[in-house]
Amino acid sequence: MKMQNLFPKVFGLTLLCITIMVVTIFRLSPSLAISTTTPPDQLSAEEVTIAHNSAGGSLYNRLGGYNAIAAVIDDSAEKIFADPLIGKYFIGLSTNSKQRLRELLIAQFCQAAGGPCVYTGRTMKLSHTGIGEGLTNGEFYAFVNDIALALDKNGVKQPEKNQVLEFANSLRDQIVEKL
Ligand code: HEM
What confidence tens digit (pLDDT) does each residue in 55-79 have? Predict the structure, then answer.
């Protein structure tokens, strides 16, 4: 057989082999493929990456993992429910609604810190619009201040405390309706 006749066959076979190799590699290791998905709309890309930008591992690990975050949320909730300025908004909630709020807050902060949690609650805008005819800046900062006190109570160090509060503050525009 002449070389000229052989060339298209060899070329075709080589192309087929390369295609099979590429498809196999990407099927076995999808992380090699470039993701076209976007993060869930509850958290912006900026909020999600807040967790990864410090030395010493993810914020989730530096905070001490799930149980440590749950302890901070429990102490925050205790302070928030008893807060002289904002406690009134939680008076009517059933025990189950409070439990649900606790779970959602843990998942929200755990996910934002880069932990293995998925926040499944509503967007901050949806769940806060209309509370008390629109939450004010002062009410928002009372809430964040209660989280800060809870972080102190649990011995969270300044760099990690700053990052948690940075995340909480990043939600302000979606929650506050009045100055
Ligand atoms: C950084 C600040 C805040 C964060 C991270 C936050 C987070 C959340 C989350 C995760 C939920 C549950 C969403 C859902 O039900 O799907 C929620 C609900 C709620 N939040 Fe906030 N919140 C913040 C500020 C505030 C403030 C300032 C107030 C009032 C002063 C407030 C009052 C409420 C109330 C009453 C609910 C329950 C709504 C319902 O059950 O329908 N939150 N919040």
Answer: 679 999 999 999 999 999 999 999 9
If you measure from the C-alpha of residue 59 to the centroid of ligand 1, how many angstroms do you get, rounded to a whole number?
Answer: 22
CATH number of 45-178, picked from 1.25.40.280, 1.10.490.10, 2.40.30.10, 1.25.40.10:
1.10.490.10
Of 77, 62, 58, nearest in space to 150 by CA: 77
Pocket mutation for ligand 1, best pick of 41, 43, 101 (most atoms within 8 Å of C-beta):
101
Q: Which atom of ligand 1 is nearest to the CA of 86?
A: 30
**Residue for token pair 């302070």:** 79
Parse the chain into domains and list their residue ranges: 3-32, 45-178
pLDDT tens-digit series, residues 37-52: 334 445 554 455 455 5
